Amino acid sequence: MEKKYQVFISSTYTDLIAERQNITNILLMADCIPAGMEAFVASDDEQFNIIKRVIDLCDYYILIIGSRYGSINEKTQKSYTEMEFDYALSKGIPILVFAKNINLDTETTSEDINIRNKLNEFRNRALKDRLGGIWNSLTDLSGQVAISIMKAKAEHQRPGWVRNLGFDPENVTQELNTLRERVLALEKENSELKLTTKSDNISSGIDLSQYKTSLHFTEKCYVFTSNSAPPDEADVNTTLEDVFKHISVRISYPVNDGEFIELISSYKSSYYVDSQQALIIKSQLIALGMLEEVDKDGDTCVKLSELGKEQMRKLNAPQSIK
After folding, report:
1. Cβ 230 vs Cβ 100: under 8 Å
2. What DSSP line would sit under 151-215, residue for residue?
3. Which pLDDT tens digit goes with each residue over 24-45?
4. Contacts of residue 5, Cβ cutoff 8 Å, sequence gap at least 6
5. In what order do the strands lie in the sheet with 271-273?
6. What is d(CA 231, CA 93) in angstroms, rounded to the nearest whole number?
7. Cβ(69)–Cβ(126) under 8 Å?
8. What is the mean pLDDT of the chain?
9. Quick one: average pLDDT of 263-285?
């Protein structure tokens, strides 16, 4: 099934407008989905959190370095561009770096020696052991990006996006309707039985262990070179009960889709999970009443329902030794 890969374009803006547009066109021709924040420049931590959520959904990260270091965050004393780079690095997203061939002493836009030093240190750190290189012209940059993105796609497999999301929507809808009907039937059964305690309610109610699921994981690669081996991949066959037991103790506040995917990814250390599979599990747990949707600052998130909290306590209660 053909995939399209989402690519985040990071750079300072005013000095690299033409370069960003050119790279956008190259990515579109390479069947990629460009993702940038040209119209949304981070100026505080709240806005930067929005940018991080966009990076979370990207498969590759392209950094263009020109003659500017960029606006500096007062807390970190780093530019927001360098903070974006550090965040992508922490998430194991393959990074491609393209730095303009300039004389840092004469061609930088800042006369502040400290800013020039920050730009120089950032350039050296970003370029080390990564796909990309030094470019001299717009044509040179375009050629390097086209070659590097094809090489990155071949050597570092990523989840990507597919039009039909890898599953039949009608079958998923039917499955969710079946789950909802089962939840209603169980709720009615519990009501008729008039169970006296919440723990009895749980034990006689939904049995998550009967719902089998399979998760596909890909190894996180924090630093790579052209000689790096492809990341390891693994399929894990488990149950909704085991997955819920793992994530339920980690949901202390409402989480959005990106954060939920990270929770499922933590089920297998040093790997990230297929994002669509994680979102299907979220939908199943909502249908079973373990999670409920809430609005958080205009973003649709999920949190544990009362039923989910009781299920969490039951699953994580100490077991007696027989």
Report:
1. no
2. HHHHHS----B-TTTTS-HHHHHHHHHHHHHHHHHHHHHHHHHT-SSHHHHHHHS--GGG-EEEE
3. 999 988 889 898 766 555 566 7
4. 31, 32, 33, 59, 60, 153, 158, 160, 161
5. 233-239, 212-219, 271-273
6. 12
7. no
8. 83
9. 88
240 close to 181: Cβ distance less than 8 angstroms: no
Q: Considering Cα of 308, then 258, then 261, then 92, what sign does the dihedral take?
A: negative
d(C-alpha 292, C-alpha 311), whole Å: 14
Burial class (CB in 10 A: 0-12, 13-18, 19+), 210: exposed
The CA distance from 165 to 283, in Å, is 14
What DSSP element (H or E) covers 286?
A: helix 275-287
- Residues comprising the chain, all counted: 322
The DSSP H or E segment spanning 306 is helix 306-315
Closest CA to 27 of 1, 51, 9: 9
Cα radius of gyration (the chain): 24
Q: Which two tokens stand for residue 148?
A: 């590097």
pLDDT in tens, 59-98: 999 999 998 988 888 889 999 899 999 999 999 999 999 9
CB atoms within 10 A of CB 147: 13
Q: In the numeric block, which tokens belong to residue 138?
A: 């717009």
Instruction: Report whether 141 contacts 98 (CB < 8 A).
Output: yes
Buried b (16+ CB within 10 A) or exposed e, 3-29: bebbbbbbbbbebbeebbebbbebbee
Cα–Cα dist 204/50, whole Å: 42
Q: How many C-beta neighbours within 10 Å does residue 267 have?
A: 17
